[in-house]
Model the fold of this input.
Amino acid sequence: MCKEKQRIYLVGIGMGTEASLTIQAKQVLESCDRIIGAKRMLDAVKEFNKPVLAAYKPGEIKDYIVTHSNAAKIAVVLSGDAGFYSGAKKLEEVLTEYEVERIPGISSIIYLAAKLHISWEDAALVSVHGRKQNYIHAIATHEKTFLLLSDRDTAREFCEKIRYYGLEKTQIWVGSQLSYEDEVILHKKAGELRPEECLGLDVAYIYNPEPDRRIYRHLEDEEFIRGKVPMTKSEIRAVSLAKLALTEDAVLYDVGAGTGSVSIEAAVQSGSIKVYAVEKNPEGVSMIRENKRKFLCDWLEIVEGTAPEALKELKPPTHVFIGGSSGNLKEIITCVKEKNPEVRIVLNAISLETVKEVMEAAREGILEEPEIIQIMASRSKKLGAYHMMTGLNPVYIITEGKEQQDGKSEISDCGGIQRKR
Done:
């Protein structure tokens, strides 16, 4: 039931100057009784001479609205556009009993795109203003990427990662103080940008002339940096990843990651997938680190240690791949199911001893009705004038758990997943 006497406006005020305010936003701010917003937002609307509250937390804002029920119209001012990385979404969740209207604004990304005479409908739009996002994946897979920076620390991290992942030759434009008199738009090769050249709340446009356009990236064994550490072979990896059925926003544990081939191939599929590569062998950890850098997998986190102990402090998984268990298979499965009872598990078994462990886990109810298939692939090898097929080791691929519709979960305070959304 909407409260008839009060109307709440969530107003996108653009970049903070009068020039970036739309006519509709001005009309609302002129007619409202009170204005709420973060201090920087309120400074931008002082000209309207209305009673104000400096606040940005949804609960605080709602409490103020409740205690000022005599105000027929209240405006909450938000930077940029009310639908683009805005607090409007969370505000509407706590203001369900009020009549709420969103007033769109001009975002800094739209402004910069217009200044540069480029379109933005085919660009990746990413923000690291108060959040973490995998912008390295976005830059690597898109010709155009717009990135909202928040301060010198995020600018410093951006400059370091651009160099670390070999993206120095991409072109970058950084817009600072957009729409203000001291507006600056800087153009450089990304590798030449220095953190001190970013002034704070900046927006960057990155142009990559050679993005990776593959929809599904299957990596051949020869592409990986390898040592003496065992690696899941290409054919087995392809089937195992198909059985995992990864989703956007998935959280994947790769237990016994070896050289990291499964971790890497999972991570390159989407910038939203969080991968934990768990490995106890120092040489394997070193190989994973090198492959992470080669394939630009910024959201792959290396966890050095033995499972299940190494898993206990990690974010609950939606998917788990077990390539090696060091004899702790039952304990690993129990651990990940305690974190998320609906987790999807895929494991590889080469030895009969591991297969025995799987069957014991099924009998004890640790694994519930697992699907078991055996794969034996052969590769051709030239011998003189002839080509002969050379067989790889047969591998059992065991799968348990329903396919997830998405990787989003609600996590309880104790670290477990309560329910799927």
